[in-house]
Amino acid sequence: DQQVKQNSPSLSVQEGRISILNCDYTNSMFDYFLWYKKYPAEGPTFLISISSIKDKNEDGRFTVFLNKSAKHLSLHIVPSQPGDSAVYFCAASLGSGNEKLTFGTGTRLTIIP
Amino acid sequence: EAQVTQNPRYLITVTGKKLTVTCSQNMNHEYMSWYRQDPGLGLRQIYYSMNVEVTDKGDVPEGYKVSRKEKRNFPLILESPSPNQTSLYFCASTFSGTRIDTQYFGPGTRLTVL
Predict the structure, then answer these.
(1) Which of the two residues, B56 and A98, has the higher pLDDT score?
(2) Which string of DSSP letters, residue by residue, matches B42-61?
(3) A95 to chain B, minimum CA–CA distance in Å?
(4) Contact A102, A3 (CB under 8 A)
């Protein structure tokens, strides 16, 4: 049973435009959410996170939005750059101090120059 | 440089031939874990360790063993590999009980079992 889902396996966006990656979860006990970025032949690297007490967190070109009632989060990248082309995983945990992560299936983002 | 290393990076083996994938971290992290990544399934946790000599099953532990005799090392053991264990494996580590976004991942080990 996939508790964290990313329904779009792939997404192509023109350079300079906004990329929006979506993630849904089913476990209402999840309290902390993260996005990881993964390049080929490398491990995932942390990108941005959000606690359930917030509905938005911003870091430069990256913004994560959380809608707890809909059990939905999204990652916005503005403006998109070629170096953003990667696989993005959303992940959830039961708290910021809880080490166990439950990952989504990933979305491959391609930025078109 | 803070890092998690895995060896080997690539491995092709045959069914039933025991193998070990090593994982080592140089950050004095207490928590270490193993994940496998499969198409359409994302990353799934295999085993984790809260500290030396403390290990526990993750979501998909069948067919795997681990040990944590030293803080820095957390090897993954496949006693009798089968083709369904063909996958991309990641080791990860973090300080226990701190913000989870400090979790570091190794570069991955691509395993093929024929």
Answers:
(1) B56
(2) EEEEEEEEEETTEEEE-S--
(3) 8
(4) yes
End-to-end CA distance of chain A: 37
Q: How close A31 comes to chain B (CA, Å)?
A: 12
A30 close to B (CB below 8 A) = no
Q: Write out the two tokens for A102.
A: 């439950």
- Whole-Å CA distances, A102 to A16, A26, A81, B94, B114: 31, 11, 28, 15, 29
- DSSP characters for A6-56? ---SEEEEETTS-EEEEEEE--TT--EEEEEEE-TTS--EEEEEEETT-SE
> What would the pLDDT profile of B88-108 be if each residue is shown by its tens digit?
999 999 887 666 667 899 999
Q: Which residue has the tokens 């990860």?
A: B92
| Burial (CB count within 10 angstroms: exposed 0-12, middle 13-18, buried 19+), residue A42 | middle
Q: Is-contact B111 B17, C-beta < 8 A? A: no
> pLDDT-derived band of residue B2, with 50, 70 and 90 as boundaries?
confident
Measured in whole angstroms, the distance separating CA B9 from the mean position of its chain's CA atoms is 12
**A108 C-beta neighbours (distance < 10 Å), count:** 14
Instruction: Check whether B72 has a pLDDT greater than 90.
Output: yes
Structure tokens at B68: 């944590």
Structure tokens at A95: 């708290």
Interface membership of A35 toward B (CB under 8 Å): no
